[in-house]
What does this fold into?
Amino acid sequence: MPQNSGSDRAAGTAAAAARPGPGGPGGGFGQRGAGRPVVKPKNFKATLARLWQYVGTERRWLTTIFMFLIVDALLMLFVPYLIGKSIDTMTGLEGHVDFDLLEVIIIVLASAYLIDAVLTLLQGWFMAGVSQRIVMKLRSALFAKLQKLPVAYFDRQSHGEVMSRLSNDIDNVSNTISQSTTQLMSGAITIVGSLVMMIVLSPILTLASLITVPLVYLLTRTIARRTSVLFKEQQVQLGKLNGHIEETISGIEVVKAFNHEERAIADFDAVNDQLFKVGLKAQIWSGFLMPIMNVINNLGFAAVAMVGGALAVKGMITVGVIAGFISYSRQFVRPLNDMANIFNVLQSGVAGAERVFEVLDEQEEPEDAPRAIELRNPSGHVVFEDVQFGYRPDVPILSHVSFEAEPGSSTALVGPTGAGKTTIVNLITRFYDVTGGRILIDGRDIRDYTRDSLRRAFGFVLQDTYLFSGTIKDNIKYGKPDATDAEIRAAAAMANADVFIQRLPKKYDTVLSENGGNLSQGQRQLLAIARVILAKPSILILDEATSSIDTRTELHIQDALLNIMQGRTSFIIAHRLNTIRDADTIMVIDHGSIAEKGGHDQLLQEEGVYARMFNNQFRNLEEKLS
It folds into this structure.
């Protein structure tokens, strides 16, 4: 579980803000996802080609759909010809109607339309499956990628922004695939086939009808350039809106406690208004397309009617040929209209796909070293050798930190907010890698171990414990999925959690709401301790594990913590100095360096930074009690 190192990172960001120059990754949690530049898709063709790679995985089904499209298109190509022939059967000079031929044509037309309906239904059926399978693969790839990204990525991005890419952007891609793929394929076949039949019927009328094609191209190109920018901006604004909603709902108690409801509504309205404006512009610009296209198409039909009428008067073509040609002309133009409309859908889908691919292209956690070994049965001997680190290259957080923690010892880290305490444990677990020096566990650089085996050696109990949706049993065995019920209950008993669990209606099968909202803070903390006990880590990290609970519950938790600290190397981050009096070593971290180091009594005798901190805390406590 990632550590909440926001205070250390925020300190680095604040320091960077005081000097000019570009910053590196990092920054406080409050700045995540803010100020992202609005840009048009960086490379439309490359993104579309990459999206097609996912589509190409369904080649077998796409081939089947394509065969249906070809048969359907060929059938529909003969329909205008048959309509023209049916008209010619009734336009003889003597008013004679060839009813036998007309009956045959009507039967053929009815059969063609019936087959067209069946093929269209099958196309939609198969394409729905294809699009959903493709999107499922893309969504799975994106979620798997999120598990491989470093903690630093999530420090830069708001949770709502990440969720937007998993939901809204993926949905846009799904709509694009389901709506666009078959229409593009059928449109291409229809355009080519209609053009061939138009040339066969009348090359002169074909030239008259093609005068509108350049106008259609220029119109589509002009509007597409504008909508591509607007659709990308719309997705960005939607991500910001989701981020605001996620933050507000997650912190609803804080919002209400500070009477911030009106301000939250005002902030939401501001972001929502920006999304409205961008969405309105995008829809208006894309909405221009079809009305103007209809005008252009009607001009083309008028040209065909005038030229065709002139040719018919001269006896060069029949009325049936003109009627059939107009039908072919409509078949030729309709896919062009559809493609222009599809291009708008495509812009939105490609904008969403690009945002998904941006995540897929993010730098993952560094690969294990080629000769990395498994960390087996660690004793918990931890050594820092001249460690240096900064979340941003120009803002150092730790400077030349060196210390040693013997196996089974307890080391307390104290100091002001932002001094670098949480950063130290983040480096031990390789949530971040050092920029200078090295960290050793059991005599080897931690970068020589596989990351999985390294992190299995750690157990975390944090100030803000996170519980997942599911039963209490599921949450306790999160670090050991194959644990038996007896092992789960033994761990809960050692954590002093079994007592309150037994009072619940369904006991260990009680379903927890989001983050254990139906439990108290102390109960959640006890479950987190039980989870760590069951995992049996060699190194324990306690980050303000008892800072947000009452004194009585703290005694239960302290007792549970003492149980799991036995025989384990422990790192304790604490602001309540009375909770770490029995630690083997207390290190005072100040401005990224170790200001003092020693036992509780020793540091008090030195009358340095720790002594002043300790005395100030007890003086404040005495003042409150008096």
